[in-house]
Amino acid sequence: MLTAGKLFVKTFRIFDTRKDDNLTNVQLIAMMQTCEDLMDFPSDWVISISKL
């Protein structure tokens, strides 16, 4: 069963490879795995994803 967090990881990895971001994919994955659902993510990340 996929959680919202796991789905968000995949989305953000795509974002990270398309834009010049300070975080690497490895760092993003580690940070995503500590979050239980989308409401735990920093709002600027969510905004960045929604602009894709």
Automatic annotation (TrEMBL):
Name of the protein this chain belongs to = EF-hand domain-containing protein
What does the record give as the organism's lineage?
Archaea, Nitrososphaerota, Nitrososphaeria, Nitrososphaerales, Nitrososphaeraceae
